[in-house]
Design brief:
110 residues; mainly alpha; Arc Repressor Mutant, subunit A
């Protein structure tokens, strides 16, 4: 007996987006090797099947007197900028991965 195709949380997020865009459940199901009712189940479950939002980047405030330690404050500001840049990069990477998954789903197997 063949093993059932399991949908990952990332797959479910893509399915929700495709269904919201008006794509037919049967077409989505064909791309993932599941049935139309399985897609309907994912869609009716709604946001619960979407991946959790990324953890917000938080910084711990330090008790530093700016007049006393200007170099430390400058380094902390630079570190905050790097963390913000990393968070943006991670978000862009997730978007790219989702786009690649959609593209690969449309490529016929060889």
């Amino acid at each position: 007996m063949p093993e059932k195709n399991k949908l990952s949380r990332a797959d479910r997020a893509i399915i929700l987006a495709r269904a919201a865009a008006g794509e037919r459940y049967a077409d989505i199901a064909r791309d993932y090797g599941v049935t139309g009712p399985a897609i309907r189940y994912v869609v009716t479950r709604g946001p619960l099947s979407a991946p959790p939002p990324p953890e917000p980047v938080t910084t711990v405030p330090l008790a530093v007197d700016p007049a006393e330690r200007p170099g430390v404050c400058a380094r902390l500001d630079a570190a905050d900028r790097v963390l913000a840049l990393l968070a943006d990069t991670i978000a862009q990477t997730r978007t790219t991965v989702a786009t690649l998954r959609r593209s690969l789903a449309t490529v016929p197997p060889t």
